[in-house]
């Protein structure tokens, strides 16, 4: 059956190119080909976000994503250049050789007291800040939801944004070398990650668009991974990266299924002013879309870290356990608060979308999506539950050793024995474990209690308790507006006023016009002083003389043959007479 999407082939061409870029990045054994794959993914992200390029919002989102991520890429490229300058190679085996790591740690960079390892780690991490949408380069990811939902699920939740985290995990030996040198690089990484996790979670609680909630949730979860790397728990970061890929892809595809069902309701009622992505236009979809509901519930519980049975619990608990055990109290506290907010906005999303009664006629006429859309949800829901079992500590009561923990040894064997994560294998901390239980269950309960009875047309129940803070969260702390005033408008002014009006028209065009006038003046001077009197005068004089001579000679050209014959005879006679008289 042919697709109704006119750009069906184009979509899969871009997705295939993206997959090539991702594979290039992952299997690369050096930083150069990693960067090639990195940039291919950036290009494909731009193409896929702006896939529906006829929509102005999609075009703007694509440009925003491309430019924002390029900021980080510039610093990443500087980091690669510095690595090559110091080690003479970009191959991992050369860079991570003990003697090179020692040299990088001992060599002073001359920047803020950092060693070469510290500065390299910081420059490469800025690339991750852009690619993984960490604060303050987080603004592109929510707008990236303008692309098709499979793009949001596969690229902007499971793979591309995770590439930044993967890259920092891959260069972890450099970060550890910087830590041994006393640098603050890992502290900066931990701060950016923890702050982003909490910052994005606070925004997510006030969003009404079902995909934007997940977008800010993705930013927050990536912050978890970055914070874990910052405290040395790179194994926990890698584990959460993989589990997050399963349940966040499930949630994005589930949101696409919900939107598809709501669009059916919009077509049924004919009211195209109803936003099919606004959760306050939904409600009661549990009975309309049962498969989507149950799979979305599993994904939401995994994201919330629902105790024991979900993958998100084990991966998130491992990060909290590493932070607590190694004395990173502020990271532990911030991430625990972010975990509570995660559970809260997840249950808010589930309750507003699926529970209660339909709040609009469009929701009443929503229907379950076909099996081609629900089957991937079922498959992903299985992994959203089961994959976390590989992270159960061996000494955990009852469940310990239920599934062989092959993931942790594999990551450690790939990167090496570095950091605090490798020392925590099989170690159980009950305080972070209980904290995970409390924040997950507490957040889920709070979300359900606050949103379980929202009637049609009601405003967000969170508005009243938050007061003046709610519009701040709803408008994303006004970062788009701030960046617009600080960066966009000055850039537009520079391009339109300074560059175009002042430099181009005023200076460059002014110089060209002055040169043109001077050329005209010189041309006139040459014409009236040299060309007309000398060159033209000489030419005209020759022509006049030739014409006058021609006029004089014309009288002998009568056209009568007799006269020509007489003249010829006279000429011949004169010649003969000359020779006769000249003879002795």
Could you list some keywords that capture this structure?
584 residues; mainly alpha; 2 domains; 74% helix; elongated
How would you sum up this structure in a few lines?
The protein is built from 24 helices and no strands.
Description:
Helix content is 74%, strand content 0%. Helix 2 runs antiparallel to helix 8, helix 12 (234-269) runs antiparallel to helix 15 and helix 15 crosses helix 20. The protein contains 24 helices and no strands. 46% of the residues are buried. The longest helix is centred in the C-terminal third of the chain and has 75 residues, at 479-553. The model is unreliable at 421-427 (pLDDT under 50). The chain has helices at 8-27, 31-49, 56-87, 92-95, 98-106, 116-131, 140-143, 149-170, 172-180, 185-204, 210-230, 234-269, 285-288, 290-304, 311-325, 329-354, 361-364, 371-386, 407-415, 430-451, 463-466, 469-474, 479-553, 561-582. It folds into 2 domains: 8-474, no CATH class; 483-582. With 584 residues, the protein is mainly α.
């Amino acid at each position: 059956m042919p697709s109704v999407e006119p750009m069906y082939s184009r979509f899969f061409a871009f997705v295939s190119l993206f997959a090539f870029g991702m594979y290039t990045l992952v299997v690369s054994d050096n930083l150069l080909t990693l960067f090639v794959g990195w940039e291919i993914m950036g290009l494909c992200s731009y193409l896929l976000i702006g896939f529906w390029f006829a929509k102005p919002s999609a075009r703007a989102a694509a440009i925003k994503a491309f430019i924002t991520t390029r900021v980080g890429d510039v610093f990443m490229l500087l980091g690669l250049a510095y690595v090559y300058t110091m080690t003479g190679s970009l191959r991992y085996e050369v860079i991570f050789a003990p003697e090179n790591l020692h040299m990088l740690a001992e060599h002073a960079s001359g920047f803020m007291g950092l060693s070469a390892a510290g500065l390299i780690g910081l420059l490469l991490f800025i690339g991750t800040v852009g690619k993984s949408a960490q604060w303050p380069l987080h603004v592109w990811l929510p707008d990236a939801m303008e692309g098709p939902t499979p793009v949001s699920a596969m690229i902007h939740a499971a793979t591309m944004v995770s590439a930044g985290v993967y890259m920092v995990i891959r260069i972890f030996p450099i970060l550890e070398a910087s830590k041994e040198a006393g640098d603050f690089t890992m502290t900066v990484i931990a701060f950016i990650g923890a702050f982003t996790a909490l910052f994005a979670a606070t925004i997510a609680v006030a969003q009404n668009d079902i995909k934007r909630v997940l977008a800010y949730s993705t930013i927050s979860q990536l912050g978890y991974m970055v914070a874990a790397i910052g405290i040395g728990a790179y194994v926990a970061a890698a584990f959460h990266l993989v589990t997050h890929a399963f349940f966040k892809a499930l949630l994005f595809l589930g949101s696409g299924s919900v939107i598809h069902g709501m669009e059916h309701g919009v077509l049924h009622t004919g009211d195209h002013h109803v936003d099919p992505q606004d959760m306050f236009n939904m409600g009661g979809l549990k009975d309309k879309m049962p498969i989507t509901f149950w799979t979305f519930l599993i994904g939401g519980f995994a994201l919330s870290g629902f105790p024991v049975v979900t993958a998100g619990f084990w991966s998130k608990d491992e990060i909290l356990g590493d932070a607590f055990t190694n004395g990173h109290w502020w990271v532990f506290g911030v991430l625990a608060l972010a975990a509570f907010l995660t559970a809260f906005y997840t249950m808010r999303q589930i309750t507003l979308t699926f529970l209660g009664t339909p709040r609009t006629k469009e929701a009443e006429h929503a229907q379950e999506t076909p099996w081609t859309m629900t089957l991937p949800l079922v498959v992903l829901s299985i992994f959203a539950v089961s994959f976390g079992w590989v992270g159960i500590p061996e000494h955990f009561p009852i469940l310990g050793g239920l599934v062989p923990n092959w993931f942790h040894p594999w990551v450690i064997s790939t990167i090496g024995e570095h950091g605090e994560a490798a020392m925590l294998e099989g170690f159980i901390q009950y305080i972070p474990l209980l904290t995970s239980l409390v924040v997950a269950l507490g957040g889920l309960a709070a979300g359900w209690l606050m949103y379980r009875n929202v009637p049609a047309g009601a405003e967000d129940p969170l508005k009243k308790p938050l007061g003046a803070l709610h519009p701040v969260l709803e408008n994303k702390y006004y970062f788009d507006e701030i960046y617009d005033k600080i960066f966009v408008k000055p850039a537009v002014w520079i391009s339109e006023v300074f560059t175009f009006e002042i430099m181009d028209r005023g200076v460059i065009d002014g110089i060209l016009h002055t040169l043109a006038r001077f050329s005209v003046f010189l041309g006139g001077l040459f014409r009236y002083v040299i060309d007309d009197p000398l060159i033209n005068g000489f030419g005209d004089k020759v022509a006049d003389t030739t014409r006058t001579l021609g006029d004089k000679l014309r009288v002998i050209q009568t056209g009568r043959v007799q006269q020509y014959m007489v003249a010829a005879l006279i000429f011949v006679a004169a010649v003969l007479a000359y020779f006769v008289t000249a003879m002795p």
